[in-house]
Design goal:
This protein has about 160 residues and is mostly helical. The protein has one domain. It is about 80% helix and about 0% strand. The protein is built from 7 helices and no strands. Bound molecules: protoporphyrin IX containing FE (2 copies). One protoporphyrin IX containing FE (HEM) binds next to helix 3, helix 4, helix 5, helix 6 and helix 7.
Length: about 160
Amino acid sequence: MANQGTESEGRAFHILPWLLALIVLLLYVDNARRLERLSSIMGYVSAFLFIVANAYYPARVIARRFRPMPDSVIEFFKKYLDVHIWMNEVAFVAMAVHAHYADDKNIVLTALGIVTLFLTVEGLVMHYRLIPADKKLLRLLHNQQILFVVWVLLIIIGHSMV
Ligand code: HEM
Ligand code: HEM
């Protein structure tokens, strides 16, 4: 019985990556460019969600210094990983809306869009096992400190240019 529950939960969750792709696809079918206010609101929404979701990484780096970790801390990071996952998914959709309707894009912001897409798709593939790739390799790609630093720099540099 317990197994059945887990299985159906797994299946329900599996729909999410495709739902996200559909939302982004539908968005790019709409060529209207008169929603600057929406772009602005979504910029702030995605900024808030990305910050909360990805503070996970520095928090983990700090926590690793204090080994062995108490059970309560291990439990906390399990819950925080769930937050990392769903908040990044929602933040990505918010960013897609923001970027689609934003004026004055530049090459650095375009690069930022591509890196965010890469990190998100890679996270989705790893978490939902969308393709039968080596999980270790997927983790290695996703958990790169340098990629994280480049991502933060692109956000800052790209936006300081507009
Ligand atoms: C990590 C993802 C991103 C975050 C957190 C973010 C956040 C923000 C925020 C908070 C603003 C200020 C909004 C305002 O002043 O009204 C802004 C402005 C802007 N963003 Fe982003 N942004 C992201 C990605 C992108 C991408 C990928 C693009 C373009 C491809 C982009 C293009 C712009 C532009 C052009 C502006 C200037 C305001 C405008 O003309 O709409 N952003 N962003
Ligand atoms: C822009 C978005 C994202 C960024 C910047 C990001 C960044 C990171 C970083 C730096 C880590 C390593 C943390 C550590 O060292 O323990 C990590 C872990 C993880 N991320 Fe993301 N992530 C993003 C989106 C996602 C998404 C959308 C998912 C899933 C749908 C996801 C799933 C995971 C998982 C499962 C881990 C743990 C991997 C492990 O077992 O060590 N991430 N993420």
